[in-house]
Amino acid sequence: MRRATLLMILLFGLRFSFAQQSPVAIHVDVSKPIGEMTPFWSFFGYDEPNYTTRKDGQKLLTELKQLSPVTVYVRAHNLLTSKGNSPGPDLKWGYTDAYKEDKKGKPVYNWTVVDSIVDTYIKRGMKPLMEIGFMPKDLSSKPEPYEHTWSKGGNLWTGWTYPPKDYNKWRELVYQWVKHSIDRYGKQEVTTWLWEVWNEPDIGYWSGTFEEYCKMYDYAADGLKRACPECTIGGPHTTSPRSDKAYRYLTNFIEHCLHGKNYATGKTGTPLQYIGFHAKGSPEITDGHIRMNMGAQLKDIQRAFEAVNSFPELKDIPVIVGECDPEGCAACSERREPKYGYRNGTMYSSYTASSFARIYDLMDQYKVNLKGAVSWSFEFEDQEWFAGFRDLATHGVDKPVLNVFRMFGMMEGRRISVRSDNGLSATDIIAKGVTQQNDVHAMASAKQNSVWVLVWNYHDDNVSGAASSVELTVEGIAARKVMVHHYRVDQRFSNAFEKWKSLGSPQQVTPDQYQALESAGQLQLYTSPEWKDVPDGKAVLPFELPRQGVSLVQLSW
After folding, report:
1. Which of 31, 72, 465, 517 has its CA 20 to 30 A from that of 200?
2. pLDDT at 21
3. Of 384, 410, 436, which marks where a domain is finished?
4. Span of the secretion signal (predicted)?
């Protein structure tokens, strides 16, 4: 009896072990399209506009343009900010000195720095999401103190956050800026840009009231439309709408634009040609490790989509997630905030793959016209190597997350049906996060004779764990053979951070080391390209995918 019981326990344990090790089955059906592969991911932004023209800034912008054939949009803060008494650009700080007043109070415009920034975009075929802000010192209703010293522990919300002392001068500033842009770049070019007024007016970025923000928006829109009736303007780029306060700010602003009295014209309504809001996750330190919270970011997007859909007049209006990130402080280094220590490695890249796929799901569910989701991530000058900022590159060397955008950039055509027996839905993640099991899932697209399948193995907890076996099945292929290219981002592939650590984590990098890091930062093949037989139009591809790893499998025929 005892032997029989032991035998049963042993058999059960073997069956349980086998079940645990069985591959995650992912099925892709080429014959079942579900929507366009809208390239909303091709938007990037940053606080520090002066980094645009630096060597590493220009290099990164070139790479962002080269990663995809679609248009790349760039959003930068501080395009109208004055230098004041600041020694130079800093974390969360930049300036252009575009506006000053002479001793008689007459405006003096100087577009030299603004032009150098926009020239950098236009030269590469990129488009600005042009942010009208922040308040020039000579136009601020409270100019002293003006520049902030946040990086040294000082107050962030200083004179640049205040309403204009003269709204007519504010309107004229916008008019002159748009007119100058048309003179320099041509109306055909400028009408392809996007314009917005300010950033996150529901928090300290705006030291005025809600009514004063609406007034500032109205005057700015009036100045823009006087110079360029065909130009596109929108907003309000408020913070996370999972907060009731931010949600009300967003909906009250929409109500003002649709039905309120225009402060600048006295008429009813104000131009509102796209809706902008921000969506952020909320990581924390739990049991000694970083735990992400993708559910918080997706909840922001869900509530904003609900807000847009609550206005029938806004049906099909373009929507832009003006900042779309795992948390809210790009300029906070890992040393400053240990909970941001996920950024250098593969957790950031797998989070990006998983979260952006769920944004597609929410876009489909709420039937919104999602045009853009801005990754607030660029590069930081004069900082330590891999300091743990939310950036795409460090000292000109690409971090793993940038390679996920390269993967997105390769996906074309229409999105097609995907099923996973171990994946989560957007609804699941909003309700419970990704803490109870790994999210092993995929999204796919197809165009003519190619299929791309993006597969990730994500978990909210930044701890080590076993790899997952994946059995990827792609059916509906109209060929007998396919060429397979398998790209990978994990601890071994497309990972300059791991390469840097293997070199001893140097802060003084030799030319040979730099070359090795630069190479390691590029997107790499996991295996050599190979031809594979496709019996009955079905390709079966088994592989191991490490925790926080991302694969892009391309099949061509």
Report:
1. 72
2. 66
3. 410
4. 1-19
